[in-house]
Amino acid sequence: MSRSSGERFGDADRAAVEPLVALVAVLAIGVALGLYTTALDDATPVTEDPAADAADAALDRIERDTTVGGIVRPNRLRRLEDETPAVVELETERRRWRVGVGAASPDAGGRIDPRSPAVAQRPVTVAVSPGENVRGVLRVVVQQ
């Protein structure tokens, strides 16, 4: 029998959708949400912070100057020369080294707030003694 014969169908037959049509609809909604998110992200203004850029550049230079074979050597911190006044901190679980670079002088007390825009940090491997390397964080604070 055909549906046009006036025969009444059960509730399960009403509002049935083909699986392929449902799949296409879900994909279309997913693509639309993805495009909307991308457009919204591109439209959001990004504030450029020169302090953050300076901190990242200083961190790159300082890491290059203190690293030998991929391992940061704390004794090389004393020989840093940089035109950007900054405080350099190398911290492991057991010890912390802090030096001033350029015209900056390291503050003897207190901790550096890593959320500050003038701070850049990176995980590194630190040589604490001959043959002993531990994980640490190399942190640079640019003085403004």
TrEMBL record:
Keywords (alphabetical) are: Membrane, Transmembrane, Transmembrane helix
Tell me which domain of life the UniProt entry assigns to the organism this sequence originates from. Answer: Archaea
Q: Which Pfam families does the record cross-reference, listed alphabetically?
A: DUF7285 (PF23956)
- Which InterPro entries does the UniProt entry name for this protein? DUF7285
User: Could you list the residue ranges that cross the membrane?
Assistant: 20-39
Keyword Membrane among record annotations: yes
Name of the protein this chain belongs to: Uncharacterized protein
